[in-house]
Design goal:
With 467 residues, this protein is α+β, with helices and mostly antiparallel strands. It contains 19 helices and six strands. The protein has two domains: 11-268, Orthogonal Bundle (2-methylcitrate dehydratase PrpD); 278-401, 2-methylcitrate dehydratase PrpD (60s Ribosomal Protein L30, Chain: A), CATH 3.30.1330. Helix content is 48%, strand content 7%. The relative contact order is 0.14.
Length: 467
């Protein structure tokens, strides 16, 4: 199964070498700390997501794989086979639109990478440090692939669905102890599995979160197969009919390997501050800033004109959402709700009752969304928005949000991240359970057995709904 030693090393082989090195590579404290932040943020999104469809429906559909196996489903703690746990937990983590983002790659790394890493670690009986090293491995490799193929890739493909396969495979390879040849073949195999069309989130469908779950499952599966000798296309990324040429344009693969083991992209992850599509966050931040600065209310605002980048309008330009899911992709809805509430948007802000609220819809009708040339020029390195508000007393007020709250240049503090976690976790596993679990997550690198992250030992008042 060895690659030809005389041939130039492929991108997959170089990535594979990193997955092996990650098991012993000296890590800067910042990388470890930010990996913990990513894991905390992942659990914050996954615990409530596991109580909603499609995760609940998938648990029933895949019942033969539930109630047995080495991994567990969240938040119930019910056992499952590792691949099924990766699939369902990965789906749950992307369901409420609150998972993390690698801005430069138009990519949500946490959902596929951490779901796969957790399942692999539970199957392998790994400790907390090994789990964290797998998480970092998956982030570093997939973040770089994502940055290499966007923005052209993002015209048609959902990066979390496609690149997520590589991240999940890399994380699994590190945790399961694959050697360099095996890891290369795992990445070669997973590259031809990678898919996920953007049409899935241009409609009120459940497919988008399943993208993340499939990536997690596929990456873990490829690693397990490679460990037993299954081979893949070694040049799957840069080959003539490979991932880059098929799914992007003129890809420069140099940055996909540059800085591995030295520059840790995991220290530059966005943790979301609003429970909605990240492409509308800057718009919401600008509305909140104007509201706070000028005492704005729905009653004294005549119009709200939002200018942002093209993808923001393409994906979040629905001025007439019919369902809570569609509302998460509606700048009109989210701007109107921010004006009403004056706070960050949470999962409780996306309900059928609110979507059909007559007074809120009247405010939505005052919101417009257009492409701003400056915001477009800054994309994707910056996710910005300009908002202009006209008041009923004829004032014209404006605010420019050059980035989003939660982005690397305006990060959530550790305490703000913990507050987000508590807001999402406490209704699911209780105040005491959430606090106990958070303490454990901050001490992950000292955890002797990753099985301690199974929630079955915690009080979970609503977890039965997931079974």
């Amino acid at each position: 199964m060895s690659a030809d030693e005389t041939a130039p090393r492929t991108i997959a082989a170089r990535h594979a070498g990193f997955t092996v090195a990650m098991r012993a590579l000296p890590l800067p404290p910042a990388a470890i700390h930010h990996a913990k932040r990513c894991v905390i943020d992942w659990f914050a999104a996954t615990l409530p997501g596991g109580l909603e469809a499609p995760a609940t429906l998938m648990t029933r559909a895949l019942a033969e794989d539930v109630g047995r196996g080495t991994a567990c489903l969240l938040p119930s703690g019910v056992s499952a086979t590792a691949r099924t746990a990766a699939l369902i937990n990965g789906t749950a983590s992307h369901t409420i639109e609150f998972d993390d983002i690698f801005r430069d790659g138009l990519y949500h790394p946490g959902s596929p990478v951490i779901a796969a890493a957790l399942a692999a670690a539970q199957q392998a009986g790994a400790d907390g440090e090994t789990f964290l090293r797998g998480v970092i491995s998956g982030y570093e490799i997939s973040n770089r692939i994502a940055a290499a193929v966007v923005p052209a890739h993002y015209d048609w493909w959902h990066t979390t669905a496609t690149v997520g396969f590589f991240g999940a495979a890399a994380a699994s390879a590190t945790i399961l102890g694959l050697d360099e040849d095996q890891a290369t073949h795992a990445l070669g195999t997973v590259g031809t599995m990678a898919a996920g069309l953007q049409q899935a989130f241009r409609a009120d469908a459940m497919s988008k979160p399943i993208h993340a779950g499939r990536a997690a499952e596929g990456g873990l599966t490829a690693a397990l197969l490679a460990a037993e000798g299954v081979t893949g296309a070694l040049d799957i990324l840069e080959g003539e009919r490979g991932f880059g040429n098929a799914m992007s344009v003129d890809v420069d693969w140099g940055p996909a390997v540059t800085g591995l083991g030295e520059d840790f992209t995991i220290t530059r992850i966005t943790q979301k501050n609003h429970a909605a599509c990240g492409h509308l966050h800057a718009s919401v931040d600008a509305v909140l800033a104007l509201r706070d600065a000028h005492g704005l209310t729905p009653e004294n605002v005549r119009r709200i004109d939002v200018g942002s980048y093209q993808k923001s309008k393409e994906i979040c330009g629905n001025g007439d959402p019919k369902t809570p899911y569609e509302a998460k992709f509606s700048t009109h809805y989210c701007a109107a709700l921010a004006l009403r509430t004056g706070r960050s948007l949470r999962t409780r802000d996306f309900t059928t009752e609110l979507v059909t609220d007559a007074a809120l819809r009247e405010v939505m009708a005052r919101v417009s969304l257009e492409i701003d040339e400056g915001c477009q020029a800054a994309f994707p390195k910056a996710r910005s928005a300009k908002v202009e508000v006209e008041t009923t007393d004829d004032r014209v007020l404006s605010h420019f949000a050059p980035t989003r709250k939660g982005d690397p240049d305006a990060p959530l503090s550790d305490e703000e991240l913990a507050d987000k976690y508590r807001d999402l976790a406490e209704p699911v596993i209780g105040v005491d359970g959430a606090g106990e679990f958070l303490d454990k997550l901050w001490r992950l690198d000292g955890l002797r057995a990753i099985s301690d992250l199974c929630l079955s030992r915690l009080s979970a008042p609503d977890a039965a709904a997931a079974e």
